[in-house]
Amino acid sequence: MDAILKVTEDMEKVYSAGGNEMFKGKVFANLFYEPSTRTRLSFDAAMKHLGASVITADGLQFSSLYKGETIEDTITVICQYSDAIVMRHPEQGSADTAAAVATVPFINAGDGPGQHPTQAILDMYTIFKERGTLDGIHITMVGDLKYGRTVHSLSFLLGLYKDVSFTLVSPPELKMPEKVTSFFDEKGIAYTEVESIEEGLDSDVIYMTRVQKERFEDEAEYERLKLKYILKADHVRDRDITVMHPLPRVGEIDTDVDALPNAAYFRQVRNGVVVRMALLAMLLGKA
Ligand code: CP
After folding, report:
1. Out of 26, 40, 49, 116, which one is annotated catalytic?
2. If one looks up domain 117-268 in CATH, what number appears?
3. What is the per-residue pLDDT across 260-277, written as a single tens digit (0 to 9) for each?
4. Which of 30, 31, 39 to mutate for ligand 1's pocket (most ligand atoms within 8 Å of CB)?
5. What is the pLDDT of residues 45-56, one digit of tens each?
6. 26 φ, ψ to 5°?
7. What is the mean pLDDT of residues 230-245?
8. Which of 69, 132, 218, 278 has the highest CB neighbour count under 10 A?
9. Exposed, middle or buried, 109 (CB in 10 Å: 0-12/13-18/19+)?
10. Is residue 67 annotated as a catalytic residue, yes or no?
11. What is the CATH code for 2-115+272-283?
12. What DSSP string describes 71-134?
């Protein structure tokens, strides 16, 4: 993680200078079988800023997966066309299945309610830039901690650093899964589980999440829970707390927060490009 942060700082300079030709002649594949704006377009931008050509597949219904092709066969085929593959897929575990057969570098861009590692890495970079450190960070995670894959991945990464602690704010139905809390227990990481946003405001970072509509079988249950937590400017205006969100937001951060200096979520988005440039450079042996 420290090495990625360092390469990302180098990539900030490349990005500000308008990119380079590191991957001239290379072809990268962006496979997005589930909706995305930020991850898809920031990978696309990162690849193009480093001189690569990009081939894409958008939407499960437009691919041969829809006809019943296995993920293994799809990935084996795309390895013939490309020098690296980025894939988002609605099934948890799909990234492991794909990576097991890939003969070129493979990046998980989100596997259903599983993990979203590149989002977590850009979140770590954002915390580092905004707070100046990763050690000792107290983070409050709010909202859909059950299905929100970004908080799962971020917990595993931030948990690698010293003296970090977590306040987990969710309704009982959307609590952090046991796979994450057992990791905290094993590592001796301090965490508390609470139900009100006010109990999470004495931290360094507040990380809001969207309730993941697409993971609910019962739409009425989603409607009941979707706006349980809304962060307002009054919550954070006079506090030394950095406000983050992986986005998209659907009402859980009031737009009044946007103008506050501690609202970091649009800076967080920009960090996604440079982090993904760094990851590609490292995976292909260029950094
Ligand atoms: N943060 C994130 O993964 O956004 P997208 O779903 O738009 O890629």
Report:
1. 116
2. 3.40.50.1370
3. 999 999 999 999 999 999
4. 39
5. 999 999 999 999
6. -90, 150
7. 97
8. 278
9. buried
10. yes
11. 3.40.50.1370
12. HHHHHHHHTTT-SEEEEEESSTTHHHHHHHH-SS-EEEEEETTS--HHHHHHHHHHHHHHHS-S
Q: Indicate if 116 belongs to the active site.
A: yes
Active-site residue 131, yes or no? no
Distances (CA, A) of 181 to 13, 146, 156, 253: 38, 11, 10, 26
Which residue minimizes the CA distance to atom 4 of ligand 1? 38
**Angle of the 149-158 helix axis to the 178-187 helix axis, nearest 10:** 10
pLDDT in tens, 56-67: 999 888 888 888
**Atom 5 (ligand 1): residue with closest C-alpha?**
36
**Structural domain spans, the chain:** 2-115+272-283, 117-268
Residue 109 CA: nearest ligand 1 atom is 3
How far is the C-alpha of 46 from the C-alpha of 277, rounded, in Å? 5
Name the residue of 30, 37, 123, 273 to mutate for ligand 1: max ligand atoms within 8 A of Cβ.
37
With a Cβ cut-off of 6 Å, ligand 1 is lined by 36-39, 110, 116, 119, 246-248
Same fold, 2-115+272-283 and 117-268: yes
* pLDDT, tens digit (0-9, with 9 covering 90-100), for 10-46: 999 999 999 999 999 999 999 999 999 999 999 999 9
| Closest protein CA for atom 3 of ligand 1 | 39
The three-class DSSP label of residue 49 is helix
pTM of the model: 0.95
Residue type, position 68, single letter: G
